[in-house]
Design goal:
about 110 residues, alpha+beta, High-Potential Iron-Sulfur Protein, Chain A, 2 domains, 1 helix, 4 strands
């Protein structure tokens, strides 16, 4: 017999402890990518509306102005909703058919 009858069991428990400790660290990387961005609601900022037709009475609104043809539009991400480069809209998705008074028409 060995001088250390429990040496194999102790080595196994040490390795198992290290493996268990690593699980939360691995999980953190995948959790952040699974987070879905919220969609902006009417009145979010700059008189934002999800449907530009609702802005027709606003003084700054110009016919045909929508998020999708704005210089701040970052592109569609999901089913007509996309990002906006304007600092007031960081972290939310805006509707491609939406409008706000920070609109800058492209083209």
């Amino acid at each position: 017999m060995s001088d250390h009858p429990n040496a194999g069991r102790r080595a196994f428990l040490r390795r198992a402890s290290v493996a268990l400790a690593a699980i939360p660290v691995v999980g953190l990387g995948t959790f952040s990518t699974a987070h879905a961005m919220e969609k902006a609601e009417d009145g979010h900022a700059h008189d934002y509306v999800n449907n530009a037709a609702d802005a027709a009475g606003h003084d700054a609104y110009e016919e045909g102005a929508i998020c999708e043809n704005c210089a701040f539009w970052a592109g569609e991400e999901q089913n007509g909703w996309g990002g906006c480069h304007h600092q007031a809209f960081q972290g939310v998705l805006v509707n491609a058919e939406g409008w706000c008074d920070a609109h800058i028409r492209t083209g």
